[in-house]
Amino acid sequence: MAESFNILIVDDENDFRETLVKRLQKRRMNVFGAESGQKALDIMNKLIFDVVVLDVKMPGLDGIETLREIKKKNPLVEVILLTGHASMESGVEGMNLGAFDYVMKPVNIDDLLEMIRQAFERKMVQEEYNK
Amino acid sequence: MDERYYKRLWGKIILTTLGFALIPLFTLGFSIYSQFSSSYSAKIFENLKTLAENRRSSIDLFFDERVAQLITIAQTHSMKQLSDEAFLNKVFQTMQTRSKSYIDIGIIDQEGNHLAYIGPYPELKGVNYNKEDWFQSTMAGGVYISDVFLGYRKFPHFIISVMSREGEKSWILRATINSEIIDSIVRAAQIGKKGDAFIINKRNILQTTPRFSGDLFGHPKTPDFSKTVETHVEEIKTEGGSYFFGATQITNNHWILVVKEDPREQLTPLLRARTIAVFFLFGGIVVIVLGTFLTTRAMMNQLIKSQRKQAVSEDIMVQSSKMAALGKMAAGIAHEINNPLAVIGEKAGWIKDLLSDEDLTQNPNLKEVEESVNKIEYHVERAKKVTHRLLGFARRMEPSQEQVDINKTLNSTVDFLENESRYRNIDIQVDPQSDLPEITSDSSQLQQVFLNIINNAIDAIGKNGEIHIKTSFLTKRKEIKIEINDNGPGIPKEDITKIFDPFYTTKEVGKGTGLGLSIVYSIIEKLGGRIMVASEVGQGTTFTIYLPLK
Asked: What pLDDT sits at residue B376?
């Protein structure tokens, strides 16, 4: 049985995103993929997501801007930033914008899953608190 | 910079300075000396000329007096009166009261007959002088002064004869004069130890006895002055050296008075002045040379020092800009590699996920596949470590600010490495300054620094060795100095500039990333400190870290 929360993976690197989606699905997660920031925002209009894993460096709408948009629409959505380089600025900026955490590629699937679960837990706590 | 370059520069500065200092000195010295010398020489010449003319005047006066006396006698007496020898004797005695220089006196008629004679040689009376030169000359000229000769009398003398007329008849009054009187007048001009004075006649025959320049009646051992008319003075070089000569013609009988002076005697004050001048000149030169040497040496040392300082700061700047560029590049590369690495990792993970559904015992190939996937994951992990360290190297993270006790940090690092070092029989000795002040820094990053350096030292030594760690506080610069010295094999000169570069390693492939020291470098730089390395092959290596108090 799938865990009852939705995950959105946003990354322009198709091979990476697709594989990650498949692997998370295999771990019984409700996972969707989006190849750009814009696509992510579109899909989030149709579906409700609890945790978004967002690549920082993307063409078009980049991770930080997408994060800003997501938080604007729904501040309770938890975002984990995925980055290929350790640019401290984007990390700090992301955290300031309300990202849950940031993690560097390549990422260990189990670590990522753990982080996603923690993010979801925080979301639950936040929702509880907001009620 | 090159030692030779400084030497050459120094030489140039010395030469220029000496040139500017010495040329005016020499010019001044020589011009003053030559001015002095020429005016002094002119003065000497003038004195010599005065002396010669003075003596000439004395001689002329002497001749004038004698001639006048004789003429007076001849004019005031008749030949008949004077032919009476008793009377002549009386006259002679009167003459001798005034001057003992008269030797004898005689009266000669116009035929040349010696009519009367008073003097030491009475046998001369009656001799006929008709054919004699002096007789002819006197008859022709009225007055005649002879050259000096020995003659019958066997001592140097000369004659003065004057002619007198009595109506149609002429007669001659002749006196012989001892030339000793002339000698004595001339001798008065023999100045100093080498000065000389003498008289020559028109044929350059000596009329007086010189001190050095020849014998009476011989030719003088000096240049020929017999043609002298006007008084003149010149410096002439002879065999015995250079001499000043003054020559002047005696009016009465056209003899030439020659005065010779030794310039070395006359110029003694000038020579003394020259000696003093030369002494001061050389003293001045010594002072200038010494002063130039010392000041330029101090200047050069200052220059070398400041250039070395500049070179060091340039080195540091080059190193830090190199690090910055390398950091950027490393970050770029790491990022570019991370993305495909992530894909590889995910794909391998996906294969592994799929394999977990299969029964591996059914298909032995699947076992192989699983092993391969594990290997892929392992190596992705390994590559990830490298790229993450690279990114860590490039990361501009803010160091934390806390009070750090360096000695404590060092000790804990050493404790951490104790097992490793004991196993390798490496003795790590810490020599801390006990009252080391705490600094504001980042202790975990400093621990990383010490760990990297000491680890490197342990690796460099291999087995059996010593590591000395010393801390001290530099009061003046307000810095803490940490020296970490090992007695390992040392770093070759050509490698020492590269040790802080990323990926530079001497360890085996896979053993070291070559990032340790570059991380050390960037941490120290971020903490506002400096790190230096000194190494001698076969002696060991010393890392020196300077950390600011704040």
From this structure: 92
CB-nearest to A106 from B331, B341, B396 is B341
Predicted ipTM > 0.85: no
Note the residue count of chain B: 550
Question: Integer distance in angstroms from the first to the last C-alpha of chain B?
Answer: 34
Q: Which helix (H) or strand (E) holds A111?
A: helix A109-130
pLDDT band for B395, please (50, 70, 90 cuts): low
Q: How far apart are CA B112 and CA B171, in angstroms?
A: 9
B222-to-B53, B101, B248, B258 alpha-carbon distances in Å: 19, 29, 15, 10
Nearest-angstrom CA–CA distance, B457 and B107: 135
Cβ partners under 8 Å of residue B492, min gap 6: B537
Question: A106: which chain B residues are within 8 Å (Cβ-Cβ)?
Answer: 338, 341-342, 344-346, 380, 384
Residue B164 CB neighbours (<10 A): 21
Q: Does B349 touch chain A (CB under 8 A)?
A: yes
Neighbours of B89 (CB within 10 A): 15
Mean pLDDT value of segment A74-94 = 76
Task: Give chain B positions within 8 Å (CB) of A57.
Answer: 335
With pLDDT > 70 as the criterion, what percentage of chain B qualifies?
Answer: 94
With beta carbons under 8 A apart, name residues in chain B contacting A25: none
CA distance A127 to chain B (A): 32
Q: How confident is the model at residue A3 (pLDDT cuts 50, 70, 90)?
A: low
Cβ distance A86 to B342 less than 8 Å, yes or no, reads no
Q: Which of B106, B179, B173 is nearest to B143 (CA)?
A: B173
Whether A105 contacts chain B with CB within 8 A: yes
- Name which of B328, B329, B336, B343 to mutate to probe chain A: the one with the most chain A Cβ atoms within 10 A of its Cβ: B343
> In what helix (H) or strand (E) does residue B178 lie, and over which residues does it extend?
strand B169-178
Chain A hits for B396, CB-CB cut-off 8 Å, are 88
**What are B309-362's pLDDT values in tens digits?**
888 777 777 776 776 677 777 777 887 888 889 999 999 999 988 888 877 777
Q: If you compute the radius of gyration of chain A from its CA atoms, what whole number of angstroms results?
A: 13
Please list every residue in chain A whose beta carbon sits closer than 8 Å to the beta carbon of residue B388. Answer: 86, 104
- DSSP 3-state assignment of A101? strand
B185 Cβ partners below 8 Å, 6+ apart? B55, B58, B59, B62
A97 band by pLDDT with thresholds 50, 70 and 90: confident
pTM flag (> 0.90): no
Inform me whether the pLDDT recorded for A2 exceeds 60. no
